[in-house]
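Sequence in, structure out. First:
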Amino acid sequence: MKKWKKGAALLMAAGLMSTSLTGCGQLLQNAVSAVQEAAESTEASAVTRENTEKTETPAQEPAVAQPAQTATGLPVLEKVFTVAYETSEDYGACLVTGRCESPILAPASAEQYPALATSLDAYTKEQMKSYNDTIADYKEQAEQEYKDAPERFQDGMYYSTNYKVLPQRVDDTVVSFFSSYNDFTGGAHGMYGMQGENFNTQTGEKLMLSDVLNDLSNLNGLIKTELLANYDPEQFDDLDNALSYYDVAVTESTATADNDMGYVFPYNWALTPNGIAFYFGPYALAAYAAGDQMVTLSYDRYADIFNPDYLPVSGNGCMVPFDWTLTGYDINGDGKPNTITLDYDYDENYEAREALRINVDGMGSAATEEGLFGTDYEVTGYYVRTGDGRQYIYATENMENDYQDWYVFDLNGSEITYVDTTWFVRTVEVDSENNVAERMLTNPDDMVLAKRFDFLSSFSAVKDYYAGSDGMPVSDDPYYVVYSDAAQEPLVAKTQLAYVVLDSNGEETGETGELNPGDTFRVYRTDGEKVLDVTLSDGTLGRLTITSADYPCKIDGITDEDCVEQLWYAG
């Protein structure tokens, strides 16, 4: 008996049982419909099993289920991404690395908002082309530098460029996000910043400031007021002069040379759940050492300047991601924006991380338990506000094999407190053209999250979660529905396995059946503990009984390797 293993977690996402990542009330229906349609329309083909001359009809390939919409009906974003790793011809050093993320709509949302889907697809294609062109240019430059000074690259001073998408406000009116970037091509330091993008959800059109603000007459004055209130005034040399180079009528494509600097800048902005955020990168208003600045004109404080059509609907939750800091949200209710900062507690030699710490000005700080956090993996923070107004911070840490540790912090008291930690796996999928996409989280009242299981094959399965009373993600759904499966072929029964027949709603009918040696099936659902629901080659839905969920699992008292001909377990 051979057991299939592979360490690359993303390969597991090239699964066969791809259901939609939607509100999970639709997940089962989508999976069942896809399986039944495939069973009815796909002609079975014979395959030869290992160590036998007998041919069997394999389980039908399930079609990819197209979801209806999330439980809230709000648009759902996915991010597609690509990575680069370019080495010298002699493989002596890395020359260029990079990663580019860009947003698209999930399939169901694309059906619901076709114009927006078209716009985001066009935006993403443009972003990816620009990124690939940059990688090619950087590689050409780096190759020449490597010939002249190979020691620089051998010491790890290679070129890099990275783009990360940070959704801000995602609802049925607007989809706004910042695309953050950082570049390094040598010198004393790299360059970084963010670029805001804003789309009308219904029409797909890019939004102008004049669309969302009905009073632009004193915009610079309002921005200046917020800058001076939230940053040290001493860091600005001549703020009035710096702001004078921005024009509300200017976009990236219409910028003109029309001042002493030789350029008129477009405002860099995005709509957030709290207001309109204006971003100024390094050098824009102050020296590089002063960093970047961002201010928010809130919907409450500056209500008169907003077009009412673009005000958010009350009762919508939000999850706003950030890398290191986030500002613009009045968390403690004192009328002033608070700044959230991610940080770490280190050992006495300041070498190893021991805890993840969240700082909120005006509310103190809180850290995970000492020793719980000790890695150098990427951490993303989320400011979370539920539809009923509760506030939390989720910090997610990408581990190996697509696992994510989640750390939850409570912002609802006078001080920030650490709640607990849990884990999920990233909802990553690979389509037939090897495009990689990952579900993005924008609403704490409707989070489709995944767990990984090893029941006859390694698979990731999802269900709908929401922020519970203490902020920890909880679910009312009893089942996880498979969305990616490591099995490259249908599972082949090695022994007789009894099952209970299920109807199209996944309910037990009272009828029973048996899988015989040589019969093929696929896993489509589990509760993670007691049941493993499968689809047979003829489209029948059946329920197997898990008698041991520990690795290696047992089905109806039979160990996994005695249940099926080949175990598809990912390492």
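Second:
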Amino acid sequence: MKNRSIYFALLFLLVCSQVMTSCKKNTSGATAWEYNTPENGGFFKMKYREQETGPGLVLVEGGTFTMGSVEEDLKFAWDNVARRVTVSSFYMDETEVTNQYWLDYLTWLKLVYGDEYPELINRALPDTLVWREKMEFNEPFVDYYLRHPSYQEYPVVGVNWLQANDYCQWRTDRVNEFILVREKILKWNTSAQTADEHFTTQTYYAGQYQGEQKSPGLKDVNAKNEDGKGFRRVRMEDGMMLPNYRLPTEAEWEYAALGLIGNSFQELVTDRRSYPWDGHFVRNDGTDGSYFGSIRANFTRGNGDLMGVAGALNDNAEITAPVYAYPPNDYGLYNMAGNVSEWVLDVYRPLSPEDKSDFRPFRGNVYQTKVLNNDGTIADKYDKNYYDVAGVDSFLTKYERQAIIEEHLTPQDQQLLTSLITKVDDAKVKTKERKYDEAQEKMGEVMEEVTSSEAVIAPDLRDAIADYITNTSGHQKMRNVNVEENIDRRNYQRADNIDYLDGDYQSTIYAKDGLVEMEKDENRMYDWGRTTLVNNRSRVIKGGNWRDRAYYTIPGTRRYLDERRSLSTLGFRCAMTRVGSPTGIGSRGEDDE
């Protein structure tokens, strides 16, 4: 009995010792130094559980799957041979981006850029003229589809790939701004934000945006904090703000569309899927006890049958349908088959299946880094818009040539065009001399002359030149990495890897004995415009749409389009990278103190 009492006493002391140890402040397992205290210099460790799910997103748990065509290749394109790949967990919008969401975007642009750069609002407008067809009466859609409230929950169309990426960047900044307001770091001050002084995630991290403070900031455990008041700005290490919204990669989109999580048992996928649902039928088979016989997606059923018979419309939509019109797939994603096709991040190549990696496959990497000052600090953000000089030059040359052929130029028009082309030529020279700021000053003069001109063609030129704005005022300066700074790297050296293994120097048909006998240009492999429409601006589009037959609702199908073009059948949805655990640590609290 005495031994038992001693045993329980020792056990009690052991438990108390463990509890007391666990209650101590968090210390480093490498040095035993205490975290989050000013006494030893303020080594920082965040008490963090997992990534917050952004608005509109659902988690797509990653894994391996067979990517590519699993059905007969009806076009005999052989551009999507099946292969096994692995996709990391990520987030994706549960629906396509709607007209209402895009109107929200336009409203913000007017608030911030409307006074100084109205051309940026026109640059962001969807092309409503995509509805026009020579032998169809579609003018009502041209006039009403984007702005009428009847269509506010319908997917936005007429948006090109570049516009979609701009929206993703804008959405990232607005969501992170909301988080800082929600956490009482900042106050709402949208009405006070201007073209060169508005919130972006990167300029906030760099200390180049102040805003209106709600609180002094987060408690700073660093004994040498800058203001000496014990507070600091939010940093990436805090995990408070979210990663960037972006377009999904082709592999991510296809994986999410199939939704194989719904028909797998442990490590076994029980049934292969052709569509985002089980079976080989496009009608509901009634296995869920409801909607028996109903069409599962919005597509064209046959020649001339886009909606069915009055009184029994098969998909209840003659064009697009509301984004929640059909049941979601097993990931909770709506309209991954039909309604509108969707932009993805990848550059198109017919041989992508043979070139891409089996882990997170993607073609389109262009590596960038922050622009730094001579002392190593981050350069000030853009204080004006920056233009693609070569793009503007190409456009003006083509515009003048076509206008002369059509005999549409007035003397004032011709004078304006000649002056603009001269200024752009000067900007090209400055660019070759690496005097980039001087080149952009010339481009600013180009836009000023257009906006102040009374020539007939001036409005058209203003909107067209605005399409070649590559960086807008108020954003952080970025540049492509160069070979010189990556001399000792083995994994990459060049910034632009779009045509790696399929169009670069090593793979070009003009290479002889390891040398390339032609100038460096993007058409050295693909003779764009004569033998093919594939080049480095060709982007993959995925999924079927309201004009397609059922074949294109199969996730493995793929098509492509120039990144500057848009269609009445093409929309997009955003994705976001999942950082950390693929499934989340839940409430296990591995990072608890």
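Remark: The first helix runs from residue 2 to 22.
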